[in-house]
């Protein structure tokens, strides 16, 4: 029987891979900020570290409400998303 994918771990790994891909013209990479004045590699690293712990919570909440209409799912997930965003900004 196939095991379910570890979506939170895959999401975090994807962020790290995207960040480390260099060169990436116009985007933050190891060599420059691209077109971003408000983001650099170090800040991107801290952002990933701040939001990655939330991924498993999103997956659990999403899985437990997967049978609901999309609008209701968004209403349920939005407060957690906003809290995650605040953690990143902190």
Concise overview:
The protein has 90 residues and is mainly alpha-helical. It contains three helices and no strands.
Please explain how this structure is put together.
- The chain has 90 residues and is mostly helical.
- The chain is 64% helix and 0% strand.
- It is built from 3 helices and no strands.
- Helix 1 runs antiparallel to helix 2 and helix 2 (41-64) packs antiparallel against helix 3.
- The longest helix is centred in the middle third of the chain and has 24 residues, at 41-64.
- The protein is globular and about 45 Å long.
- It starts with 6 loop residues before the first helix and ends with a helix.
